[in-house]
Amino acid sequence: MKPPTIILRESIWHIRKRVPVRCASVEPRSIAHVSLHTDSRAIASMKAPQVWAELI
Predict the structure, then answer these.
(1) Helix (H, G, I), strand (E, B) or coil at 4
(2) Cut 0.90: pTM above it
(3) pLDDT tens-digit profile of 3-19?
């Protein structure tokens, strides 16, 4: 599985990932944006896979 993309929105890092088709019945968005609650890119890179795994 491809790791989630991290993007900077305002001054906080977020993950952006396409929502899998199998999850479409419970998640109406086609693209999920989730805050990583950090302004550090290094910390965001470490947190992103774990946060995404918790969502799916």
Answers:
(1) coil
(2) no
(3) 889 999 999 999 998 88
